[in-house]
Amino acid sequence: MLSLLPLVLSLATPAHAQDCDAKVLTKSMVDASPVQVADLFVKLAACDPAAARKVAPEQLLRVLPGADGDKAAVAAVQVGATDALKKWMDTMISGDRSRTIAALGTVCNSVPEVKTYLLATKEQLGEQFWTERWYRSLADCGGDDVGAILAAALDKGSGADKTRYFGILETYARSQGVKALPKLVELEARFTDVETQTYVIQAFPDVAQVGSEGGMDIKAAQAASQAIQGLAPTLGPKVVEAARVALQSLGDEAAADALAGERFREVRQDDGHLIWGVVLVESASCKKGTQTWRRVHTAMVDEHGQTWPDQLQDKVQTSVETGWELSLGAKCKTEESLSWNLPSEPFADTAAYKTWRDGIIGGLDSSEVAKSWQLDHDPLSL
Known about the structure:
This protein is α/β, with parallel strands linked by helices. The chain has helices at 5-12, 22-31, 34-47, 49-59, 67-79, 82-90, 94-106, 112-125, 128-131, 144-155, 162-176, 181-190, 194-202, 204-207, 218-231, 237-249, 253-258, 260-263, 309-323, 328-332, 350-362, and strands at residues 274-286, 291-303, 336-341, 371-376, 380-381. The chain has 3 domains: 1-124; 142-263; 269-381, no CATH class. It contains 21 helices and 5 strands. A hairpin with a 4-residue loop joins strand 1 (274-286) and strand 2 (291-303).
């Protein structure tokens, strides 16, 4: 979105008489096409706020939605033409209105009149404030007054319109920053359904402004990460998965990895480790291509509770390549092929691992294999 800061600066100080002519600007606006009206209105607002306020009821209705229209909206608020602004915005389609509301929000903290106006709309519009997503404009507004409005809405619960609730949740987190964390922790404990708990966890990165133009707030990110880690032992499996993603977006990869132990706490060992396994099938064409030989490598994998299923193969492969002899291809003087078999989840105990291992081996096709043997390796430690 085009920055409105230059406009804010220009309207902050009234123009000198020699710099503008309100009568000329007013006449030019009346004669102008809709494409030109917004720019002329902004100039008139900077030149003579009273004159701009006077023509606003008629001229704002001619303004076209868009970047220039957003500037005109800010100018209208600054000169006190809020009734005219509301009538103009009522004529917009939903997407254009949302854009202008968001534009007002971007200058909320830098233009006192805009913040006052946005807070007033909550009382003036009632339910419309929520249904037309005016609350979204508060994402860039700090302050306890804004926080109180949004927190009160969150305390009412999600109800039937969960999309709105989740939007308010994000807006609250972005608006309040670190101050939002106690409420987010409270909400995470309050809700029991997985969907809502997941959305609450996803709001923690918003506290640190992840994805914003200004970049992530590092200190807020650290605080949000610590809060998520504190909640982790109370979260169900699916919510822990969402917490992992949240920690990754906060830049805390180590904490995200450590949540693997919480995700699989039901099969986590007493020492905090997880039991995985690997069956590696090594095949090669031997005897001058007349026979296929196969060597099956197996091992239990003892892991410190910091590896997720999508990370397992890379870690196992690194360990295998440095510790096992994979030489069937060299033995047959040809290229070998490797087929990796890894579980999707850790095992409860060694017996479960062996059952899985034997099932993988039993399912191998031996119809065209002339020679096959199995090597059971010592457990791999990751």
